[in-house]
Amino acid sequence: MPDVPTEVPAPAGTADLADACVRYLDMLRHVRRLSPRTLVNYERDLGDLRQRAEVANVKLRGIGPRHIRTWVAALHGGGMTPRAIAARLSAWRGLFAWLGMQGLVASNPLQDVRAPRAARPLPKAISVDQAVALAAYAPQGQAPATADRRSEQAWALSLARGRAIAELLYSSGLRVSELTSLDIHYSRAPGYESAGWVDWDAAEVTVLGKGGKRRSVPVGAPALQALRDWLALRPAPALQGDTGDHAALFLGPRGRRITTQRVWVELRDRARAAGLPTAVHPHMLRHSFASHLLQSSGDLRGVQELLGHASIASTQIYTRLDFQHLAKVYDAAHPRAKKR
Q: Which pTM does this prediction carry?
């Protein structure tokens, strides 16, 4: 089979958009060897470009930024999501970049055209009452009657660990990776140094967040008590010689440092047992921590520091949650509020 050239000779005379798209797709298929599914997407996106150019009665060399912006506006007005528009523009941009290398166009009309910005979804948070109910949940009675002694111990450990995890996540707004990396105390040994630890005297945790930035966050009294209750039951690590597991604050059912997946599972099960109407994950408690703290204090900079956000813009999204909370209070309490 002969080698397929990376450059396809340009046709004589005025370049034709339809022909250029065919040759570009041929290059993607044989040179870049894109998957059939990806090629179908390219064919769809380039077919849309050809159709719009035909309706506008514009040739390949006549397509300019104003045409592209008009077509983007039409896509957006037609209900296409910003993400889908960005993908379509990427296909168009790739075509014109390739045509530029072939000498068929003088410039890329998509050079400075961007897709509409996607609306940033609001973080999901639970109410104060739900957060407190989740953290304080304690089942009535003893372990299931069918459980043997070993199962009873595992049940008690799971309850204590789940309570301590829920209390600490809501009390301090930690990321789940920050929680799983916590040690009981600061520890340093050959080949090991704590990434995060509990300062029991100062009632705070020190963690290593994103970008390698270290911060200290207060821990409330109920969370500290839940941690002490957990440590009173915490078993010895499975591997005695492993410094990381020996120092770990939370151990999973197998006696190793707890994993993020295990935290997700235990928090989900605890929320279900506590009767919460929504599935709860670790980051939801971080969102709840930030939202409830901002509602009470109004101190955006303070919340930024506690969350470890590098930019205030990341924290400002919680002001939208705060506004939603105030709007609900207004609708429920103000005598002249309009029913929505």
A: 0.62
Task: Look over the chain and give the mean of its residue pLDDT values, rounded to a whole number.
Answer: 84
CB 57 within 8 A of CB 17: no
The burial of 79, by beta-carbon neighbours within 10 Å (0-12 exposed, 13-18 middle, 19 or more buried), is given as exposed
Span 106-127, average pLDDT: 81
In order of 8, 21, 301, the CA distances from 60 in angstroms are: 17, 10, 52
Strands 192-193 and 188-189: antiparallel
The Cα angle at residue 264 between residues 260 and 268, in degrees rounded to 5? 170
Q: Strands 196-199 and 204-208, how do they pair? A: antiparallel
Sheet bearing 196-199, strands edge to edge: 182-183, 196-199, 204-208, 214-218
Please report, to the nearest 10 degrees, the dihedral formed by the alpha carbons of residues 69, 73, 76, 80 taken in order.
-60
Do the beta carbons of residue 64 and residue 53 sit within 8 Å?
Answer: no
137 contacts 163 by C-beta, under 8 angstroms: yes
CA distance 325 to 310: 26
- Catalytic residues, by residue number, are 175, 210, 283, 286, 309, 318
Domain ranges (residues) in the chain = 17-102, 129-279
Q: Superfamily for 129-279?
A: Intergrase catalytic core (1.10.443.10)
